Fold:
Amino acid sequence: MPQLDPITYFTQYFWLLVVFFTLYVIVATNILPHIGRILKTRNKLKSTKTTLSNKTTVETSKFETVLMNTLLNTKNINSNIIENGKVWLNDNLSQTNKVELNSVNEKYINTIGSLILKKNIK
Amino acid sequence: MISKNMMIHSPLEQFQVNSILSLNLGWFDISITNSTVAMILACSIFLFITNLATINSTIVPSRWQSILELIYEFIYTMIQEQIGNKGYKYFPFIFTLFIFIASCNLLGMIPYNFTATGQAVVTFGLSFTIFLGVTMLGFAQHGLHFFSLLVPSGIPLALAPIIVTIEFISYLTRAISLGIRLLANMFAGHTLLKIIATFAWQMLMAGGILAVAGIAPIALLFALTGLELVIAFLQAYVFTILTCSYLNDSINLH
Structure:
C-alpha cells in the first residue's frame, strides 16, 4: 500500500494543515457571513411581507364593512324619501283640490250641470 | 494495435504520492506532492464556484447560490440537533470540514485525478487533530470533571472499573475509527473502480465475443461510479456528524 510510506507523512500533514486553515479563514471571514446575511435578509423580508399582507387583509375587511354600511344607509334614506314623497304628493293633491281649486271645481260642475239642464229643457 | 499491457497497472498505483516540487523547511521535507495539488485544486474549485455564486447574490437565489444556502442550512441544523445553542461557535469549522472532505472526495471521482482523502495521513491527520482538539476542549471547559464522561450514570460500583476501562478504550478508538472509516471507503471504492475498469479494458482488447461481453463490466463500472459519488457525499456527512457528536460530548458531557 503506497499510503503506508512514511516518507510522505510530514509533507502531506503539513500541507493538509496549510490548506485546511486557509480554507477555514476564507470560509469564516468571507463566505459564511455573506450567505448568512442573505438568509437573514430573506427571512426578514418574508416576515415583513406576511405581516404586511395580514394588515392589508384586515384593512380590506374594515373597508368592506364600512362600504356595506354606507350602502345600506343610502338605500334606507332613499326608500324613506320615496315613501315620504308619495305621502306628501297625495296629501298636497287632495288639499289643493279641496282648498285652492275649490271654486274652479265648483264652477266646472255647475257649468256641466247647466249644460245638461239646457239640453234636457229643449 | 495498442499493447494489451498499456493500461494494466497495480490498482493501488493511483494512491502513489509523487513529489512535484521539492521544498525543505529546515530539516523537514515539505515538498509539494500530487496530494497537495489535489487538495489545493479541490478547495480552489469550491472557492471559485462560491465566488461565482455569491458575487451577485440576490434575495431570490440563483441555482448555485441555492446549493450553497442548502449546505449552509444543512450544517446549521446538524449543529442545532447535535450540539445545541453552544455549538454555533464551531459552525465555521464544521462547515469547512464538510466542504474540504466533500470536495476532495468528489475531485477524486474525476478519472486520472488524485484522491487526497484516500491517503492515510490525511484522514488520520484530520481525525487525530480533531480528537486532540475535542479532548483539550473538554478539559478546558470542565477541568478534571471531564473524566465523568467515562462513567455512565447509574452503574453499580462493583462494575465501575470494567465500565471505565471499556469507555476509555472506546473513547480512544474514536480517533482511529473516524479516520479509518473515511480512508477505507475511499480506498476500497477507488481500488474497486480501478479493478473493474482494468477488467473491462482487458475484455475489450481480447476481441471477438469477449469484447461484446465487455459491455457488462462497463455497465457495472457506470453503476459503481454513481454509488461512489453518493459515498463521497455520505462519508463527508458521516465525518462531520461524528465530529459534531464528539464536540457535543466535550461541551455538554453526555
Q: What stands out?
A: The first helix of chain A runs from residue 9 to 98.
